[in-house]
Design a protein that fits this description.
Length: 243
């Protein structure tokens, strides 16, 4: 009787440790998205209100982009660790290949989107670009990143809703995904408006670029704050889509 009891106690302690580790990973992702969203919102506000130099705006966006990428990758780790069977002691799973898992697909597509944003954010430091170069090096990866965020959000909604998109107002993870998907839509609209017209060398609608980015970033920051209170388990994760 003593040995089975000891095994149960060991399994319980491992399960508690696993749940605690998932909670830590979830909070890292949540804080990263909150900081990234806040910095993006700050950068958009600087640009719209003419505060600071263009370099200040670009640096603010770039640092925010780093935190978005950190949140995206941490979301992948969160999904990986959530697949560990309860009560099983495992090392950290920094990467896995789970193309049939909606949560994994959502996290990976989101991470790819943050990397595309990074390309755009770095290219924004270049000066003297022609409209064609600006659209190719800055706008194109940016709009691809926006599309990745939209696809990621759709996959995440399917995941948290059990394969069919609906309203799950009683689930914290649904609110995380829903709020971030609104942010992704706003990012996409801002991305479309950022296209540089060759005839004028100006964006289609700079106001929409700045305010759309600001509102979308606020959504992601708010989504990150909500995610802090989520408690993922080995059978369920709250994945950002970031958007």
């Amino acid at each position: 009787m003593g040995e089975p009891a000891q095994r149960r106690d060991f399994s319980d302690s491992v399960a508690v440790a696993g749940a605690r580790r998932l909670g830590h990973i979830n909070r890292v992702a949540a804080v990263a998205f909150t900081i990234g969203g806040s910095l993006f919102a700050l950068g958009a506000a600087f640009a719209q209100l003419g505060v600071g130099s263009l370099e200040t705006v670009n640096i603010t966006y770039l640092v925010g982009g780093f935190f978005f990428s950190l949140g995206g990758y941490t979301s992948i780790v969160l999904v990986n660790m959530a697949q560990v069977a309860p009560g099983t002691a495992r090392r950290m799973r920094w990467w896995s290949f789970q193309p049939h898992h909606l949560g994994w697909l959502s996290a990976v597509v989101l991470f790819v989107g943050t990397l595309l944003f990074a390309v755009s954010l770095v290219a924004a430091f270049a000066s003297g670009l022609t409209p064609r170069q600006s659209n190719g090096w800055i706008w194109f990866p940016d709009i691809l990143g926006c599309l990745c965020f939209l696809v990621s959000g759709h996959l995440a909604l399917l995941d948290v809703c059990g394969g069919r998109i609906g309203v799950r107002a009683h689930q914290i993870d649904w609110w995380v995904v829903a709020v971030n998907q609104i942010g992704s839509v706003l990012f996409f609209l801002a991305g479309l408006a950022a296209f540089t017209r060759p005839a004028t060398s100006r964006a289609v609608d700079i106001g929409l670029v700045n305010w759309g980015t600001f509102a979308g970033a606020v959504c992601f920051a708010f989504g990150g704050l909500i995610q802090v209170f989520d408690k993922p388990t080995p059978t369920r994760t709250a994945v950002q889509q970031t958007s």
